[in-house]
UniProtKB/TrEMBL annotation:
Residues in coiled coil: none
Keywords: DNA-binding, Transcription, Transcription regulation
Pfam families reported for this sequence: TetR_N (PF00440)
Descriptive protein name: TetR/AcrR family transcriptional regulator
Protein's UniProt keywords contain DNA-binding: yes
Domain HTH tetR-type: 14-74
Keyword Translocase on entry: no
Known function: TetR is the repressor of the tetracycline resistance element; its N-terminal region forms a helix-turn-helix structure and binds DNA. Binding of tetracycline to TetR reduces the repressor affinity for the tetracycline resistance gene (tetA) promoter operator sites.
Length: 225
C-alpha cells in the first residue's frame, strides 16, 4: 500500500497540474478511488484544497487528467514491427497500464475518453487495427471486440470477482469440495500466476480471426478488381 507523504515534504516546490495529478494517483493507490477528494490531495501536497482549483475547476476535471495520465503511459509500439506485432504490442501495453494503476483502472475502463488525449488514443488504436484489417466496418468491430476483451481482463485482474462486493458468507472449503468438483479441479488455473497464459489464449483467438478476415477481404477486393 502506498504511504502518505508528510505535508512538509510535499509542500516543497510550486504547484503544477503534473504534481497534483501525481499526488491524486498516490492518494487513490493508498485509499481507493471512492475516497479521493480535493481536500485529501491538498493535504498530501501540503496545500489548501482551494489552491488546487486554480489548476482543476472540479474533482471531475482532476479525474479526467488522471485517466489521461494513465492512457499516456501506454507505450507506442516500435515502428520496425509488422502491423500485427504493433497491434499486439499495444494490447499488452494497455494491460500493463491497467496493472500499473489498479485502483484507478475501474474509472479508466468506463471513461468516455472524450478529452484530446482520449480521442487521440482511440485514433491510434484504430490506425493499428486498420493496418491489419483496412475494411472500415471490420476495423470498427475489431476495435470494439478488442476493447471488450481488454476491459474485461483489466477489470478482472485488478478488481475482479474475488474482490467484489457480497453480503453472503463464503461457502466453506468442505462445501466446495463436496458440491463443486469441477471448480476444485480447475481452481489452480484461476490463480494470478496463470493469468498471462489465459490472456494469451484470448488475444491469439482475436488476432487469428483478424488475420482470417483480412485475408478474406483481400480476396474479395481482388475479385472485384
Amino acid at each position: 500500500m502506498a504511504t502518505r507523504k508528510s505535508n512538509g515534504d510535499a509542500a516543497a516546490g510550486p504547484l503544477s497540474t503534473q504534481r497534483i495529478v501525481q499526488a491524486a494517483l498516490e492518494e487513490v493507490a493508498a485509499d481507493g478511488l471512492a475516497a479521493l477528494s480535493m481536500r485529501k490531495v491538498g493535504q498530501r501536497l501540503g496545500r489548501e484544497a482551494m489552491s488546487l482549483y486554480h489548476h482543476f475547476p472540479s474533482k471531475q476535471h482532476l479525474l479526467d487528467a488522471m485517466v489521461d495520465h494513465a492512457l499516456a503511459s501506454v507505450e507506442e509500439p516500435p515502428a520496425d514491427l509488422t502491423p500485427m506485432e504493433r497491434l499486439l504490442h499495444s494490447v499488452h501495453s494497455y494491460r500493463r497500464m491497467a496493472h500499473r494503476f489498479p485502483a484507478l483502472y475501474p474509472l479508466v475502463a468506463v471513461h468516455r475518453l472524450n478529452t484530446p488525449t482520449g480521442v487521440r488514443f482511440i485514433e491510434s488504436i484504430l490506425a493499428l487495427i486498420q493496418a491489419v484489417v483496412p475494411d472500415p466496418e471490420l476495423s470498427a468491430r475489431y476495435f470494439r471486440a478488442i476493447g471488450y476483451y481488454l476491459t474485461g481482463a483489466g477489470l478482472d485482474e485488478t478488481s475482479g470477482y474475488a474482490k467484489g462486493p457480497s453480503a453472503a458468507e463464503p461457502a466453506s472449503d468442505d462445501f466446495v469440495v463436496r458440491e463443486c468438483p469441477r471448480l476444485v479441479g480447475v481452481a489452480q488455473y484461476f490463480q494470478p500466476a496463470q493469468w498471462d497464459a489465459t490472456f494469451a489464449i484470448g488475444v491469439d483467438a482475436l488476432m487469428s480471426a483478424m488475420e482470417r478476415d483480412a485475408a478474406r477481404v483481400g480476396r474479395v477486393n481482388l475479385q472485384k478488381g
